[in-house]
Amino acid sequence: EVQLVESGGGMVQPGGSLRLSCVTSGFTFSSFDMTWVREGQGKGPEWVAGTSTTGAPFYADSVKGRFTVTRDNTKNTLTLQMNNLTPEDTALYYCARVLTFRVEISTERLLEGEYDYRGQGTQVTVSS
């Protein structure tokens, strides 16, 4: 059974940092691209950060320079380090197993894609 379990969310003040983790099981983690997706209240899903099987990172313009996505294939874990958070980053964040990516390799820009499995998500709230 494929499982993805996120942790690390919470409430933080603007300018603060959080580190999200996604522990996976039930599939060969190293064989799949992975991504973080967020959904703010009343908003559609936004692909914010993803990584290829080799660890190449891709970011949405809205988070580039502030978020860092990494993966540890030995621990089947995906991580998202989020710095300089703003209220606009408030959302439910979940990790997902990618089927296809749409990216701009030269700029490390993540556009969107399709996934087949996702976790339940972890809430991030940025507020003063």
Counting H and I runs of at least 4 residues, what is the number of helices? 0
Mean pLDDT: 96
Relative helix content: under 10%
| H/E element sequence | EEEEEEEEEEE
Radius of gyration of CA atoms, rounded to a whole number: 13 Å
Q: Which structural class do you get from the secondary structure elements?
A: mainly beta
Shape: globular
The total count of strands amounts to 11
Oligomeric category: single chain
What is the CA-CA span between the terminal residues? 40 Å
Main beta sheet strand tally, sense and closure: 7 strands, mixed
Residues in β-strands, percent: over 45%
Low-confidence stretches: none
Structure notes:
- This protein is an all-beta fold.
- It contains no helices and 11 strands.
- The protein has strands spanning about 5, 10, 20-25, 35-40, 45-50, 55-60, 65-70, 75-80, 90-105, 110-120, 120-125.
- Strands 2, 4, 5, 6, 9, 10 and 11 form a 7-stranded mixed sheet that branches. Strands 1-3-8-7 form a 4-stranded antiparallel sheet, with no helix packed on it.
- The model has no long low-confidence stretch (mean pLDDT about 95).
